[in-house]
Amino acid sequence: MDVILSNIRALVPGRKQFHLDLRRFVAEQITRSWILMVWLIAFTAFVGWYTIGQLSAAPGSTTTVLIIWALTVYMTVISELQKDHTPLTFWLKENMYNSINNVLVTLFLTLLILAGVRAFYSYAWVNASFETDPITSNEERPNEITVDDALAAYRVDFSNFPEGSSLPPRVILENAAGTPIRQVTLTKSADDPNIVIEELEDIHTGASWGSVIENLPNILLFRFRDPVIQWRIWASIGVLVVLALPSFVVYRGERYRGTTTRRLLTWAWVASPLIIFGLLYGLTAEGPLQVVDPDQIWGGFVLTVIISVFAIVVSFPIGMLLALGRRSNIQGIPWWVTYPVAIAITIWGLLTTTPANLEASRNTAETILAYWPLAVPVLAFFFQRSFKGNVVAAFSTGYIEVVRGTPFIVVLFMSIILFPIFLPSGWDISGVIRVLLASALFSAAYLAENIRGGLQALPNGQYEAADSLGLSAFNKYRLIILPQALRAVIPAIVGQFIGLYKDTSLVYLVGLFDMLALANGISSQNNWLGIRTEPYILLMVIYFLGSSLMAWYSRRLERQLGVGER
Amino acid sequence: MTATNTKSMGEDVIVCHDVHKWYGDFEALKGVSMRVRSGEVIVILGPSGSGKSTFIRTLNRLEEHQEGSISVDGIELTHDIRNIAEIRREVGMVFQQFNLFPHLTVLENITLAPIHVRKWSRERAEEVGMKWLTRVGIPEQAEKYPGQLSGGQQQRVAIARTLTMEPKILLFDEPTSALDPEMIKEVLDVMRDLASSGYTILAVTHEMGFAREVADRVIFMDAGQIVEENVPSNFFTNPKEERTQRFLQQILNH
Amino acid sequence: MAQGSIDPSGRRFKLPSLLDVRVLGVLAQLAFVVGFILVTVWFINNILSNLDALGESQFICIDGSSKPRCSFDFLSSDAQFELAETPIEYDPADSYWRALGAAALNTLKVIVSGIILATILGTFVGIARLSKNWLVANIAKWYVDILRNTPLVLQLIIIYFSVLLALPQIEEAIKIPGIPIFISQRGVNFINATFLPSAGVWLAFLVLGLIQAQVLWWILGRVEEQTGRSQNRFLWPIISFLAIAILGWVFSSNDTNQSILLGRQLQVEEISDFETLMLQRYDVNTLGEIDMLVANEVMTQDAVDELALSLCVLRDAPSEVNFTAQLRQRGIPYTVRRLSSQSRATSSFADGDCEVYVAPTAVLAGERDILENPNSFLLLPVQEAPVRWSIPRIEGFNFVGGGKMTTEFTAVLIGLVLNTGATIAEIVRAGIQSVSKGQSEAARALGLSEGQRLRLVVLPQALRVIIPPQTSQYLNLAKNSTLALAVAYPDFWNIANTTINQSGRSIQIMLIVLAFYLSISLIVSLMLNAYNRRIQLVER
Ligand SMILES: Nc1ncnc2c1ncn2[C@@H]1O[C@H](COP(=O)(O)OP(=O)(O)OP(=O)(O)O)[C@@H](O)[C@H]1O
Ligand SMILES: [Mg+2]
Fold this sequence. Notes:
The complex is a heterotrimer of chains A (566), B (254) and C (540). Chain A is mainly alpha-helical and 566 residues long. Helix content of chain A is 69%, strand content 2%. Chain A has 4 domains: 2-126, no CATH class; 147-206, no CATH class; 299-330 and 390-561, MetI-like fold; 331-388, no CATH class. Chain A has helices at 2-11, 22-29, 34-57, 59-82, 87-95, 100-126, 134-137, 147-154, 169-177, 209-221, 227-250, 260-281, 294-297, 300-327, 335-352, 354-360, 364-370, 375-387, 391-405, 408-422, 431-457, 460-468, 473-488, 490-503, 515-522, 533-562; strands at 143-146, 184-188, 195-199. Mean pLDDT of chain A is 82; it is low at 136-148, 150-171, 177-190 and 195-203. In chain B, α3 (106-116) crosses α4 and α4 packs across α5 (151-164). The two termini of chain B are 30 Å apart. Chain C is an alpha+beta fold and 540 residues long. Chain C has 4 domains: 15-54; 96-191 and 405-535, MetI-like (MetI-like fold, Orthogonal Bundle); 195-250; 256-390, Periplasmic binding protein-like II (D-Maltodextrin-Binding Protein, domain 2, 3-Layer(aba) Sandwich). Chain C has helices spanning 21-54, 96-129, 134-148, 152-163, 199-227, 235-252, 273-282, 289-295, 301-307, 318-330, 342-350, 361-370, 407-434, 437-445, 450-480, 492-503, 506-539; strands spanning 174-176, 179-184, 187-190, 192-195, 258-263, 309-314, 334-339, 356-360, 377-381, 387-390, 393-395, 398-400, 403-406. In chain C, α4 packs across α13. The two termini of chain C are 47 Å apart. The relative contact order of chain C is 0.12. The model of chain C is unreliable at 1-12 (pLDDT under 50). Classes of the chains: A mainly alpha (566), B alpha/beta (254), C alpha+beta (540). Chain A binds chain B through residues 254, 459, 461-462, 464-465, 467-472, 475, 479-480, 483-484, 487, 564-566, and chain B through 60-62, 85, 88-89, 91-93, 95, 97-103, 112-113, 116-117, 143, 145, 147, 161-162, 165. Adenosine-5'-triphosphate (ATP) is lined by residues 23, 26, 28, 46, 48-54 of chain B.
């Protein structure tokens, strides 16, 4: 041991003394418990095994990592021994090498990340193709496969394969192989009685970004990319920009507080969804703002934005009313009204409907159901006990809880299937609008809970102060309660909006052309058969950027609201 | 009762008769009867949980009483929203926790109710509000937010807010209990000032000095009942009831 | 003091004015009720007229008439669609009821396993986010960020199409060395425990063992309290539990129920004699050489099967599992014919289709007497173990034996677990962070060990913060399981949707769907509320 120590000392260009209590170090880092010891041995072996594997897979980068790792560990150890840390070694000691275990974990994770990055890099860049017209680009590399090869490779039965079949050969091969094959053509050779399959394999084995590049306008704008109506998108964005720019000045600081400018701007913001809706939906049967069929025209990222924004805008007032309704403590229907009515209904039901139903009942379930009037007093009892006869609170609570218990996708299907049944037969609402309404009604329930949280967080004193000043109930909520409660729940509402933004990806299941539907569609385009991953990656990026941007903004807002005015 | 009044006092402005109040099964007020004449300053004392807050909060309908009658300024306190609104306009209340509106500036806090309840113009409300802010000694804080003020300043803003409504009666519920000692004086000074300018005041407070000095009458409550009503000089030196003596002993020994 | 001079109006009954808050309240309520009823009536009117337009098929009864009470009768008719996977037996000729029931079980399967796995994953990641290692903390953070900021359905689709379907085919299934798990495009096949009838007895022993261990633990605790001497409160209960478990195993492993019937000419007296028999047949020194013969193409697989021990098995006989498990242990090749009825099995055996007849002892004893020359047959008992491992192996183009998770199920499960795990990680992290540093320091100051500090101080307080949001995450998982539709996993919603398309009864099915998911929500929140209350009680 002494030999090693003196060697280390010799390595260090320093005058300072080491403070190494080896026994204590071993006791703290290794022999503290036998579980730790076993773990360290096993983990060391594993990391060693993995490192060797990586060394053979990618010698260059692995060696670099190993050298850097060894060097930094060495530096950190020396600095620690001398109790003289540079900022770097101190950070390393605190965050990377704070125990033997972490020294190993750091190495392992670095190598793991490196392997992942390497794999993705070669998939997404080195081996990737950015060609938007794959067929022409690959024609030079035919690769012949005979029927026998194909049989061996894919266990495909070509005996029934009709000559000049219109079925794309790659579909057959794919079915047989179970995996997508990029490019195949099938021809009948003249001198060989066997069918010869020419497989035009892609030059690249990585991503086909061409599929994404070619479809990008489609995914973003869908049919709005038609130049005749495309200007409406830009006009909508323009409206937002025109409103946003002055907002940065007007809503910041005290200068414009309570001024007409600020009030006007606020009203403009409130009206902007209507204007933009008018632009995107259209106003007249003819002319530049011709009404479009949203089922045909709205799609892609535009549809995602439309649904999430309008759902949140529409759901806001509904959610507010529901929240106030659930918390309302107005005088309920008194028990001496509820109970007699309930009992009257029960008696009436038992006398008039039960005998007939009993007669007609075909099984036990129907027999039990025939006694439905007995449930009425029970319900009345719970109604009085839980809601003190307050119908508004009962309705709001029921609505909120039922909607929150129902999956969004069920709500979407209900809107598509049940709206036509619930509305008079003449009313023909397009699918997109149904989904829009359903999303709004759905998110209203969640919004209501958020707002209720904000209301509950308000101290009772605020209500009392408003009351004692003689404010009317309407003014109390308008001027005192809601401004505070809503401000407190802005982050929650942004969170709700992010949820909606992500949830719009479900509308493809009810047949709308959102981004996901279009991405799925790529895999059946002739040029890009079977290509799925690339468009999915694009969508991941779009959703991730959108959501994290909003989440970041919401956090900033939270911080801003935390200080200053409170 | 035999109050020896030093000030000239007018009509009865508050008349309570046998007021009962239940919280569920718990009876917080067990038949409280009293009357307050215009211009009187009354301090309510009593041990914690005796129903002091509950009582003065029933006077402006922050709590609803179930039995008995209360009439304020000749208006009977019923469930009728017109009566309630009327009474709240005439009765101002100052809370222990100030209950300022944190999202409004001090001046907005003060002018809010006059504008929306009394339907004053903004100019008039601001003029009167500034007058009261000056009176409580903090006109320079008008544009700040409540969160930026000290506790004593906040309580003075709360008093100014109440007074801008020009109420006839003022209710104080332990206005100094949430304050540091040096701030208590600021608030008590304002209260003294108000007492001497002829407001009818009902105050729950543990400030014995204030009670002795300013009150026309002291009311001692225990367990939801009025145990003793007396002029301060007698109350503190020569209480009638044994329960009062025990209470006084307890607080004076501390 | 003031008496009698006031008008005691409080006692008098007065008609409340119209502006009385109570009257206003009730009026508002009544207006709401009336409005509600009007809207409902309007809806019902629309529904009725729309249904009229659809024809009366919605309410068709079995006898052909049409009454509203028959709205749900169609559920008893044949479903006529396949289910890709079912936990219970199901056939397209079964009713919609059964289809929906099977699908409901599929949903429950996803929810229960998802909740358990997501909790484990979320807890680990939540702790990892607080790791002292910068890399670990940041990887955890990125995992959480990416999963939480992208839509679940997209994640599911990527997992399904881009990951799971890109896995190798069955023949090249990924094997994890040492662990019998096979991962392929068609799902995950894994080793699985098969419970035989005697497992019931053994489980009873296990329960007994658990109870006594608990009692012993408690008694040792009392002794510790009274004598003040520290007792080994973990070792003894564990030892006694193991003892009882082993005892139970021996006790329940009986050999009276399960038997095989075979001809005496095979010269097999015990099961180990099969080994010698096979060595002779294949003319090898060890049974392991048979595989070599196939690999070196000396012998074809068909030839091996030709010589293998042939069994006739009465379908569903537990003795098959027991017997074949023992054959596999010894490496004896065998072929199985499963026969569905006793008479067919016996005649098959009598015709010499197979050498060994596997069935319960009682059956074999009876059937032996029917055979022509009963004494030339030997009834050999088979040792039954309560639980046996079933290891998957490839037969033809499929795996047989073991447990299986289909690709669709795996995709839904992974997606839900990864997604919910990310949210739970955030909740756990916030929970742990909510326990103030002071608490930990106080615990250390009291001299509690690290483990005690976590268990007694940090965890109970963190749990109080963690559990309410956790509940809503579990509910979210339950609701999100409906996204199985995107990868065609036959969950309840998927099959309900199929049923709507097939039968056209949208209102009825939607009602059932609502009832199903609402009751799941209700049950999960009731259970967690109860747990929550317990935690809060412990707190006090
Ligand atoms: N909202 C309520 N619900 C139930 N009981 C209440 C409520 N408010 C007050 N009480 C009870 O009524 C009694 C009187 O309360 P009150 O607040 O009037 O006491 P207090 O005299 O003001 O006491 P303190 O000096 O501590 O403020 C107490 O016993 C209290 O527990
Ligand atoms: Mg009080």
